[in-house]
């Protein structure tokens, strides 16, 4: 099943967002890439607005996953996690990227342009696309616990 991906970030993550968007668009595992901003490196739109817009698309079922880039990856993760039903993580290493999906069924991967090199970011995004959550895994009950808390 090809993934519907939303990508976004602020001006501190603009250059990586552009490069990673092109990578996603050329990957056969991706059906569509929707860019929710920012439009250029001078755009002062704050990262919470972009992150929430991306997360809302997932929450509404309009996208499967999101890739968000800011300076550190931390702010966009915090903002995306404010949207009900969203599990966003910041990850800059292969193991964390894999476990974010396998253990936590995270739909949003966040990275920092000021923290990780572009070539490593590209490798991590490719790995992320290939990881799928197993609803029969031992982690499923833990994800259900997170979702149950959120619905209270």
From TrEMBL:
Enzyme class: isomerase
Keywords, sorted A to Z: Carbohydrate metabolism, Isomerase
InterPro entries (alphabetical): Rib-5-P_Isoase_Actino, RpiB_LacA_LacB, RpiB_LacA_LacB_sf, SPI_LacAB/RpiB
GO molecular function term, any single one: intramolecular oxidoreductase activity, interconverting aldoses and ketoses
Similarity comment text for this entry: Belongs to the LacAB/RpiB family.
Stored SUPFAM superfamilies: Ribose/Galactose isomerase RpiB/AlsB
Protein name as catalogued: D-erythrulose 4-phosphate isomerase
EC numbers: 5.3.1.34
Organism of this sequence: Mycolicibacterium arabiense
UniProt feature coiled coil, ranges: none
Source domain of life: Bacteria
């Amino acid at each position: 099943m090809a993934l519907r991906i939303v990508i976004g970030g602020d001006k501190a993550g603009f250059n990586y967002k552009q490069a990673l968007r092109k990578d996603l668009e050329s990957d056969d595992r991706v059906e569509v890439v929707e860019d929710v901003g920012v439009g250029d490196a001078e755009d002062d739109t704050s990262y919470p607005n972009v992150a929430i817009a991306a997360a809302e698309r997932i929450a509404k079922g309009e996208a499967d996953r999101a890739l968000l880039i800011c300076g550190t990856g931390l702010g966009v993760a915090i903002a995306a996690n404010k949207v009900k039903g969203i599990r966003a993580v910041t990850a800059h290493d292969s193991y964390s990227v894999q476990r974010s999906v396998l253990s936590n069924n995270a739909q949003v991967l966040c990275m920092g342009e000021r923290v990780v090199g572009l070539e490593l970011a590209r490798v991590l995004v490719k790995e992320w696309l290939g990881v799928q959550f197993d609803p029969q895994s031992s982690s499923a009950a833990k994800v259900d616990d997170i979702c149950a808390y959120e619905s209270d």
